[in-house]
Amino acid sequence: MVGAGIGHVASASASARRSSPAGQLDATTRAALSAALDDALTKVDSPGVIAAVQVRNRRPWVAVRGVVDTTTNEKVTPLEHTRIGSLTKTMTGTIILQLVDDGKLRLDDTIDEWFPEAPDGDRITIRDLGTMSSGIASYTANQDLVAQYFADPSRPWAPEQLVAAGLAMPRKFPPGHGFDYSNTNFVMLGLIIERVTGKPFSYSLQTRIFDPVGMSESSYPDSNGLPDPYWHGYTVQDSPQAVDSTHWTPTFAAAAGQATSTLHDLLRWVKAVGTGSLIKPQTQRIRLRGNPASKTGNREYDFAIGQDNGWLLHDGEIPGFNTQLAYLPKGDVSIIVMANSDIGTASGVPAPVIFEALGAVIAPKNAP
Asked: Whole-prediction pTM value?
């Protein structure tokens, strides 16, 4: 995930900007974004893609490519519902921070109150979970559990099963002294939210995120279906050839990646999470204090969100689907990319590769 700086492409002329319809990116920039998207698509493996770039409150540039289903070859529209994978983490983390604002939690609270079975729970804090510094291994690295998942990818999972599998593995490092991207951390945060609020995680997601932001097409499905309209997702995670994983259970991701959304809802969300509009300003500043062990060049992982060359961002991956959100505070720039494939190439998985290409156009000053 590499970002880029603010402003239009250097070649965009003043006359092109003046001739643009009110509220719309200039014609030169729109053409450059389309060209960058088409070039990026030659480097990735995805039947379809949906992308948007928005600068301030201008009308977003929106582009679609490809098909929603490789069997029918039906064309992609901007309205497709998709599984957003780890973008859910940005929502889970925000709810935790709201509970901090409400005085119901502290980031330095240790997790033994909710997970007495965790051997070192009296040393692992909520902050450690949200910044990936707990040392708890990701349950997705538990080979026995993963084998069960792929043996029947439609079966439902309880979050407690996922946490147990993660806790059963050796610690990566002492609490607070390292960085390891672990889905277990965020499944645990989801359970903490349930135990603090006394409500299902889905209720908190609806009332604290979707409703306030106006994300009317977003949901946290506990079934294997997707809302209409939706596209089909393709993966090679358990097969040498791409298979349709559209109706695999999302419950294997829980609060780390179970949500679904649409392009326009995610455009609302990326602005909300990027500006911290749902939490207090001082809490947003705390959120953006990175885990020191995660720092690599201009990249770091903060509390449920990353930073990369000035961008606040997160990607999401769940079998068959890949997403990317990115917000550049300097200039108020938002980028959303959705792909119906999580298949990697030499360049990477689709959404981050496409984001890099679009970011280099719309914000070249921060380009690597």
From this structure: 0.93
Contact 135, 180 (CB under 8 A): yes
Which residues are 306's β-sheet partners? 301, 313
d(CA 260, CA 61): 22
Structure tokens at 130: 């949200």
- The span from the CA of 228 to the CA of 305, in Å, is 29
What is the C-alpha separation between 199 and 281, in angstroms, rounded? 26
Domain ranges of the chain: 14-366
Of residues 309, 325, 316, 323, the one with CA closest to residue 274: 325
- Mean pLDDT per block of 10 residues along the chain (368 residues) reads 26 34 84 98 98 96 98 98 98 98 98 95 98 98 97 97 98 97 98 98 98 98 96 96 98 98 98 98 97 96 97 98 97 97 98 98 78
Give the pair of three-digit tokens for residue 158.
């309880």
Assigned superfamily of 14-366: DD-peptidase/beta-lactamase superfamily (3.40.710.10)
